[in-house]
Design goal:
Largest sheet: none
Structural class: mainly alpha
Order of helices and strands: HHHHH
Shape: rod-shaped
Number of helices: 5
Helix content: over 70%
Strand content: under 5%
Number of strands: 0
Distance between the termini: 83 Å
């Protein structure tokens, strides 16, 4: 009897107790509990960083494509550097640096 008198009045109220159980259930036991939400927030941040990176890469590729379309010298330079193309009268030596 003495133990029951020490319990606060708000815990004796059935509505407060129901609300407390509901909140505990949502935070710890639900399918979308607090820990899952924190994990998903972290994944969302990583995906947003990836999106920013790839958007930046797309812009760089568009600039490079526009440069290759408009400038024959840059087209020749890219063909020589990336694809090791050469003119018929030239010899190409590839030096492998380790």
């Amino acid at each position: 009897m003495k133990l029951i008198k020490q319990i606060p009045a708000w815990l004796k109220n059935k509505y407060s107790l129901t609300l407390l159980v509901f909140v505990v259930w949502l935070v710890f036991f639900d399918h979308n509990d607090l820990f899952v939400q924190m994990e998903r927030t972290g994944e969302l941040r990583q995906l947003e960083k990836g999106k920013a990176y790839y958007t930046e890469q797309i812009e760089a590729m568009r600039k490079e494509l526009a440069e290759l379309d408009n400038d024959p010298a840059s087209l020749e330079k890219a063909a020589r550097e990336k694809y090791l193309m050469k003119r018929d009268s030239e010899d190409v030596f590839i030096i492998d640096e380790k």
